[in-house]
Amino acid sequence: MLLTLTTTCKPATDLGYLLHKNPEALRSVDMWFGQAHVFYPEATVERCTAALLIDVDPIGLVRRKGRGAEPASLEPYVNDRPYAASSFVSVALAKLFGTAMTGRSAERQELADTPIPLEVRIPALPCRGGEALLGRLFEPLGYEVSATPIALDEQFPEWGDSRYLETRLGTTARVADVLNQLYVLLPVLDDQKHYWVSRDEIEKLLRRGEGWLRDHPESELITRRYLRHQPRLAREALARLLEEDQADPASEVQLHDQAEARVERRIGLGEQRMEAVLEVLKGAGAARVLDLGCGDGRLLQAMLRDGSFERIVGVDVSYEALERAARRLRLQEMSPKQRERIELVQSSLTYKDRQIQGYDAAAVVEVIEHLDPSRLDAFERALFGVARPGTVVLTTPNVEYNVRFEGLPARSLRHRDHRFEWTRAEFETWARGVAERSGYTVRFQPVGPENPEVGPPTQMVVFAR
User: Fold this and answer.
1) What architecture does CATH give domain 2-195?
2) DSSP character for 317?
3) Average pLDDT in the 361-369 region?
4) What are phi and psi of 24, to 5 degrees?
5) What is the pTM of this model?
């Protein structure tokens, strides 16, 4: 297996400082699957190339896997592992360039922090998804992608192309970022990791994906493939990846929640909102209900008090929020019969999760304003396209009403974590579009004291399938 990294940033030989490998020396390490070597085919002031060459021992691999037993056929020996870039390359990258992947450089830290022109070449890259997938993964990260399909057999062109690509990736970026992105995306393209994937891989994915994976348009596909299509691990990784309050300590997030509650408490808006949502759910005859973005569990607690709700599931991306909900509900003290009615699930609202299918209704109370606008389409697909409950009741602040709140500065949002707050016209346009695209009817209902000029403080929509 071969991968090269080239820069033309002068003096180009400074690449050695960034990779922590001397251009004048060959560095070789023993790996359990063979040997990995780093050397520099060219090292001048104008241009410098570092090569990672992996010499895989296919016989040793088979014998190691079979603990010394000889296979009954040659089939285990006949594969692409010795020739095509795969998860072996990721392991070698971490082994040989581990310090470089942290972005640290004792001699050239300023350079390590600076984006420089880089070119990655991989002579044989397995890609389950072809050139299109290669572009979908690397182009959003700022790479120029060039790939040439490799024929199955040059002597028999009628056989067509293989799934292997001769690949060139050009970018201007930090060396650490490029190495981390290669570490994650090479096995994603191959879609066939050579080792068993456990929960430890979640930590590796989040660490190597820091700063770019969360907002990547293909982050769901990347996560699923990186974790070898293990749904439980993928759901946990996505939930942690997209945890909305992960950038803030829990205490700080709660302080902002409390500040928002104080603004609304003077008009009893929280209670009015809860009553309105419960009335819709009961009016729809819903017995199995999802509370999406359940937070600390106030709505869950209200539904538990009502025997008409037979199955209640609280879903939140924040593990800390679910812990607060568990304490509020006193799950540990709950009777077995009552405990069977409720479940708390960590998951993201913007990713397709089959475990929330088959419910009568879903409540989405003061949640969507915490999502980045760019993720609203993903939220729509996940809820209305995959989960498809019979009824969806959704509330969000009416930004027009904010001028009526005493102590709220002009043009301010009600919560620091709100990504947006809609006017009534904006909310209606969005909701009607969702209903039309998804096959739902829609009706709107004000919540709270309605002002003739600016409307109600909370706007609510009810979708019926």
Assistant:
1) 2-Layer Sandwich (3.30)
2) S
3) 95
4) -90, 0
5) 0.60
